[in-house]
Input
Amino acid sequence: MILAAQSIADFLAGITEVIAPGKGLQYVLAAVIHAVLLVHAFALSPAIFIWLERKVAGRIQDRLGPTRVGGLFGWLQSLADGIKLVQKEDLCPPAADSLLFRSAPYFVCVASFAAFMVLPFSAGWVAVAADCGLFIILAILSLEVFGIIMAGYSSGSKWSLFGGMREAAQMVSYEIPLAICALVPVIAAGSLNLGEIGGMQRGGVHNWFIFHDPFAFIAFFVYFVVATASCKRAPFDLAEAESELVGGFHTEYSGIRWSFFFMGEYASMFAVCGIASILFLGGWNTGIPPLDDALYAARNAGASGQGSAIVGYLANVLGMLVFVSKAALGVFVQIWLRWTLPRLRIDQVMTTCLKYLVPISCFLFLGATVWPLLLATALQRSTWTPEALGVRAAAELRESVPAADVPATASGAVTAVEARQESATEGAVR
Amino acid sequence: MTGALMLSAAAAPGGSVLFAIFALAACLCAVAVVASQTVVRMAFWLVLSLGSTAALFFLADADFVGAAQLLIYVGGTLVLLVFGVMLTASGPYLKIATSPGETILGAVVALLFLCVVVASVSGVTWPEPVAADAGALQTASGNTLRPLGLAFLGTRPDQDLADGDQLSPGYLLPFEIISIHLLVVLIGAAYLARAKRRAVGT
Output
């Protein structure tokens, strides 16, 4: 689904050279193809998740959910919903500030979709392989709240204003434990690059960062709770609390603009679950060492041109399927929670965050920093797993650089990592 | 931004087009901040202006600064600003009307500031842009995080001591001082804003 931009640019080189010489058009086309692929993938995924939401909600409430549209299991229900929403009149209440009211849904949508720019779907399958990917993705996801607040404020309605204010208070508080919990696996990995973090967890379930130390194990669950809150999902959906605020921030919206909010919500649910899957659950790694090794070998052979490029491509498709199913499982749990737990009160939401989640995440962060030192003094090693993390990181770095064009700097980096690892183990043994 | 997309955008002629688009957006939105009268509309234009500035940072291969710009200014400061307006506004759509005198005064100050900026920018002799060589630590342009972290601790692989560069002491101490300072401000603000309870019986 997402190839490196460079490969598309190379692929297009032959075609565009005929139309217009130079590289300009080729890069523009590569960028447009990426954007179209991403937007379509995540305009479609909410359709699936909304159907899942209806179906799961139905089953939990002991009814069938959608059964008619599209035949079996009502799988076309989302399309029917979508057609209904597109047909609806696009209303703007007279009391509203029309510029802000009309542009607020785009803010939410753009912020959620832009997050997928830096989210890797498989080894090397990422639109922008940024060194501080996790930082960028958290920064982009934090923009979504501005659209919600703007929608609440500009609607000219008291219900909406209350919804917007609650959302602002909630998001400003929940961003803190979210970032601190995301840092716990980062301490273990020593990198903010999501691709590198995912690559380090290959080879067995015990290598996943959720099992790296007891603090990371707890941090995963804290992260998941906080991520649920940051997507304003029940039991934390105070911004839209239907029972008291009509519809909260989206009370005055209708039609396609209303659906933009929900596309944004489902896209950000998938984004936070994708981050959880990369940080804690091994990303695109299957957790079965022989299978992982075979997939990595196929990828590297395909990339370096020694093996079949199609097999390498298929290996990446399989990695993407593993990643997407892990993230979708997270979304399923969020849906399950929504229909099982009652909604909290706003003061309970704030208490949960400020009095419990922030101190817990600070403690976990501290614990994660102390853990390697503890292991080094007690057991003379840096991790409890048989293979130390640095060895894996070095292997990763060595394999990712094709043997044919190893620049002096890259091989130098590999030896530097190895040397560091050796000195670290020596130090620990001593 | 580091990825192939932005890398190619910066290398290709498209890079300057993107720069022009975002620079123009940043400037026009900044003008719109001054021109609009509702506080929340100002915040809206400011978001667009600061967001375009972040995009300019990404185009200049300064990922970390761009993300920090988004997180701190757009995601943090502006949300707090709008939140503050919503909490304190006496009526819907609080308007700020500027008198002609204020407009003229503001324009004069802005013009003077522009003169200072133009004078100082034209006064500097800009060195030829060279690709930063951080040795093995920088694998692709835009991956600035590792060199940044090392510079934090005082290791500057991009500087050559033999070439007459000064040894950098690192930014760790200033960073720690600022962190403690912010923590003090935070506690102080919480103390000032706490609910004041009257003592019983007085």
Observations:
- Residues 6 and 59 of chain B are 7 Å apart (CA to CA).
- The two ends of chain B are 63 Å apart (CA to CA).
- The helical segments of chain B are 4-11, 14-35, 39-59, 63-88, 100-123, 145-152, 172-192.
